[in-house]
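Quick review question:
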């Protein structure tokens, strides 16, 4: 006689510390996302059959929001529990790590993990002895008589972005080979094998065609091909995905808690063994859900403190440093971007700098600059590195950035869809200061830098130049393969939020200027 039941797997991923429904651009703002909204959706589903509902936190929870930053830097000593108390209140059964968990160093990560009330599964980040460094590799959890194995995996590409001192002594094993090692073992221990993977998909989910350079950053498509995987939870790319890949139900629930992933597995038991006989995958929107009252109340005191902290005035602006049109600001230099370049050069003693306008939410600076303005415009905890590179390398980097654009009808300038889909990558278009250059989008890729001078003279291929960029870019992040750690000659270990605040303290009045040192044109018009 067979028996049938349903196991429901709910997941969040890439919430980035956005607990309450705000992006902090305005005080007490309300947005259609946030962990409190996701918690309400989770509670609604879980209460229907709590014994058969598994809830997974899939990484990138420790960094991203001003609240998350405040927990690290806002008080005399780091207090990760100011943030993690919210995650503890959701009622997760298990979690894994994201790449951004390392942004503040392994010591802070371990301090934060010690405050969590749910167990971790992480198999491919290893210590010097080759053992899981934040283990165990998997968790076995009973749900209504069904034994579920959750194998935790994290993109192994972290060393290509992260500051070396943040990951010292750690090894990042390939996720596919790690899963191939563990899944057969877990099949013997559990009825259901779930992979919680903080990584995304490297190929089109329908035809398998590569959707990005196959660097190993994302390997979800390959993971779904491993025999014995019953469900695959993904993240990292901030995409909204739900469906089947090679017959395996999979989800990826976007960014900042805007979705909850849901996988339903129909299980049939025969001879005392449960097997998956059917499955479904979907995303549950959170935008209209009422923020979970208990977590909202729990976080109210720290939220008020953070809002007050963000409203601290740091300086004043003479002129206009706002960004009314972020797309236009990438074509014609914005005074805000020139200011960031100025801070970077002052902090490192160079006269060439590169930076990006990371997303389209930042509005630049108004007449008064607050910490809120700094943190909602410069959203990453980047430190700075100085690269000593040749003119040829600089030109290669500019050509890489120039791929952001494409010619549009009637001589207009458009955005290359590869920088928008499947994941927005506006942060991978860099603008430079201290050199003069022209990007002509009408030219073939790789030949778009039609003018490049330094101090009025053409840049020579073998000319050595010191250039300031953020640490992510300096080690080759964003597939800037012309850069690497071997070119770093010095660093500034303060993150950019602090450097900007320090600069404003020393220069309480900043003047909005832009010298238009770069041009983006379409010569076909």
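Suggested answer, residue by residue:
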């Amino acid at each position: 006689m067979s028996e049938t039941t349903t196991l429901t797997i709910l997941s969040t991923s890439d919430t980035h510390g956005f607990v309450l429904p705000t992006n902090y651009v305005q005080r007490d703002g309300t947005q259609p996302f946030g962990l409190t909204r996701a918690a309400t959706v989770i509670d609604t589903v879980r209460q229907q059959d709590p014994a058969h509902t598994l809830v997974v936190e899939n990484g990138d929870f420790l960094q991203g929001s001003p609240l998350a930053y405040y927990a690290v830097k806002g008080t005399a000593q780091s207090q990760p529990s100011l943030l993690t108390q919210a995650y503890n209140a959701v009622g997760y059964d298990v979690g894994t790590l994201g790449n951004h968990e390392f942004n503040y160093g392994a010591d802070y990560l371990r301090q934060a993990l010690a405050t969590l009330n749910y167990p971790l599964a992480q198999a491919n980040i290893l210590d010097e002895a080759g053992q899981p460094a934040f283990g165990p590799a998997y968790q076995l959890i009973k749900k209504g008589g069904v034994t579920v194995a959750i194998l935790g995996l994290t993109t192994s590409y972290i060393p290509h972005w992260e500051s070396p001192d943040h990951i010292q002594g750690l090894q990042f094993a390939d996720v596919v080979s790690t899963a191939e090692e563990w899944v057969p073992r877990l099949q013997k221990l559990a009825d259901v094998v779930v992979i919680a993977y903080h990584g995304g998909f490297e190929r089109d989910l329908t035809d398998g065609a590569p959707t990005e350079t196959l660097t190993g950053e994302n390997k979800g498509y390959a993971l779904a091909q491993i025999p014995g995987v019953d469900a695959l939870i993904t993240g990292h790319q901030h995409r909204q995905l739900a469906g089947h890949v090679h017959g395996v139900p999979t989800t990826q629930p976007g960014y900042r808690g805007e979705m909850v992933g849901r996988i339903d597995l129909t299980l049939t038991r025969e001879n005392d063994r449960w097997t998956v006989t059917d499955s479904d995958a979907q995303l549950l929107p959170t935008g209209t859900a009422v923020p979970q009252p208990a977590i909202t109340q729990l976080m109210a005191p720290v939220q008020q403190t953070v809002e007050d902290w963000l409203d601290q005035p740091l300086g004043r602006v003479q002129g206009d440093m706002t960004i009314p049109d972020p797309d236009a600001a990438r074509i014609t230099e914005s005074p805000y971007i020139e200011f960031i370049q100025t801070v970077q050069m002052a902090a490192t003693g160079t006269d060439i700098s590169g930076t990006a306008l990371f997303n389209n939410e930042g509005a630049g600076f108004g007449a008064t600059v607050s910490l809120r303005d700094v943190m909602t415009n410069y959203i990453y905890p980047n430190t700075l590195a100085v690269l000593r590179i040749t003119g040829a390398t600089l030109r290669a980097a500019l050509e890489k950035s120039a791929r952001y654009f494409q010619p549009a009808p009637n001589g207009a300038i458009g955005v290359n869809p590869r920088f928008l889909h499947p994941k927005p990558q506006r942060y991978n278009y860099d603008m430079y200061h201290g050199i003069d250059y022209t990007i002509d989008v009408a030219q073939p890729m790789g030949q778009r830098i039609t003018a490049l001078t330094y101090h009025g003279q053409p840049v020579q291929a073998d000319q050595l130049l010191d250039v300031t960029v953020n640490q992510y870019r300096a080690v080759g992040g964003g597939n800037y393969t012309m850069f690497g750690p071997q070119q770093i000659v010095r660093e500034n270990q303060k993150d950019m939020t602090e450097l900007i605040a320090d600069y404003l303290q020393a220069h309480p009045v900043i003047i909005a200027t832009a010298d238009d040192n770069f041009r983006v044109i379409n010569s076909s018009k």
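Why it works: The two ends are 74 Å apart (CA to CA). The longest helix spans residues 293-310.
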